[in-house]
Specification:
alpha+beta; Cytidine Deaminase, domain 2; 5-stranded mixed sheet; 4 helices; 27% helix; 19% strand; globular
């Protein structure tokens, strides 16, 4: 168990809302902002596959649209065994919004990564300071 069990559970619950009729691959994500609030998102597939939105991006966009700017920790929940890590694009976006720790979970496992482990030498542009 982790100290962020509530965040992992929020990601698990968000996965239940995923819209993945083509792939069947459902993903849930949750972010904890600097004020301790939890923001969730799920993947939403589109028939035009490049228009599909990842769960991590859904959570970030929801949070930012409501005024949140910093997210020290994130969780991603899938059915994969071992648990799947965020895609490269999501790793970069998580980095840009200040994520330092990423929990990846499945019904059978839980792993903790630092974002620098997942994305060494990330492109650095601090979006959290943008107005």
């Amino acid at each position: 168990m982790s100290s962020d069990d509530d965040l992992v559970e929020a990601a698990r619950m968000a996965r239940e809302q995923a819209w993945a009729p083509m792939s069947g691959y459902r993903v849930g994500a949750a972010l904890r902002d600097a004020d301790g609030r939890i923001w969730t998102g799920c993947n939403v597939e589109h028939v035009v596959l490049p228009e599909t939105v990842c769960a991590e991006k859904t959570a970030i966009v929801k949070a930012v649209s409501e005024g949140a700017r910093r997210f020290p920790v994130a969780a991603v929940f899938t059915d994969s065994d071992p648990p799947a890590t965020p895609c490269g694009s999501c790793r970069q976006m998580l980095h840009a919004w200040g994520v330092e720790v990423v929990w990846v979970a499945s019904p059978r496992a839980l792993r903790r990564f630092t974002l620098s482990e997942l994305l060494p030498a990330a492109f650095a542009l601090d979006l959290g300071k943008a107005t």
